[in-house]
Amino acid sequence: MQFFKRIFLFLIINVLVLTMVSIVLSIFHVEPYISQYGIQYKDLLIFCLVWGMGGAFISLALSRIMAKWMMGVKVIDPKTNDARLKGLLDTVHNLSQKARLPEMPEVGVYNSVEVNAFATGPTQRRSLVAVSSGLLDKMSKDEVEGVLAHEITHITNGDMVTMTLLQGVINAFVMFLARVLAAILSGFNKGDKKGSYGSFMLFTIIFQMVFMVLGSLVVFWYSRKREYAADKGGAHLAGKEKMIAALEKLKIFVNRKVPTAHKESLETFKISTPSKSGWALLFASHPPLEMRIQELKNR
Question: Which residues form the domain of 186?
Answer without folding.
Answer: 1-299
